[in-house]
Amino acid sequence: xxxxxxxxxxxxxxxxxxxxxxxxxxxxxxxxxxxxxxxxxxxxxxxxxxxxxxxxxxxxxxxxxxxxxxxxxxxxxxxxxxxxxxxxxxxxxxxxxxxxxxxxxxxxxxxxxxxxxxxxxxxxxxxxxxxxxxxxxxxxxxxxxxxxxxxxxxxxxxxxxxxxxxxxxxxxxxxxxxxxxxxxxxxxxxxxxxxxxxxxxxxxxxxxxxxxxxxxxxxxxxxxxxxxxxxxxxxxxxxxxxxxxxxxxxxxxxxxxxxxxxxxxxxxxxxxxxxxxxxxxxxxxxxxxxxxxxx
Length: 295
What we know:
single chain, alpha/beta, elongated
């Protein structure tokens, strides 16, 4: 299924604006409608204001007064704002370690499973570390993904120290010549400070042995919009994030959250989830995203 079809809900937020500008051209009401659409799509006030200021300036400079010209300019500006970042996932290390963080329910374990399947399919051996030891079902779910993807699982006892489980996974991978460890982490402890301290400890311990932490990926449910952005801000304080994975983007009307995350947090969206299938976690493509959102 094409990206445009996958983003039908997100594109719906802009259908009124697109229809209006097509029928009327560019006037003051056009800018108001675009502003409303961006805010409804959860792009955020600051991101929306900055984008509109640049668009108005460019449109005036280029004397754009027709719908085709404005929409083309909008796509170009959004793609430019979202682009120019390193979206590769670092694999340097013996092994490289990818930590996955985020609150419960956003799809961390599923994201790990899908990524593991992709890496194994590409010929890279993978160890999955069940670092969410506070939720009994988490290790079981990760084990199921390990079986499906062809990865190996390292887990500890329920309630074990998460850092020790991940450290053991790194040591095992190094001894076995496995180049990549993907580590699940808890999404909730008894308070936020406790969770952030635990994540900071995991990061330190994961890089103490032979492993190198090359990615700390925050998993965010796109359908939660600005609430997801608020969660992301909390994690940026402690977790040394390298990128964001936006899950459930195909079912969300809040496509503007992609712009808000990168603009307000200055962290690249590296992967997006566009469905339930094994192959539905894909690398983020700014140009394709802009084209799908405003067509």
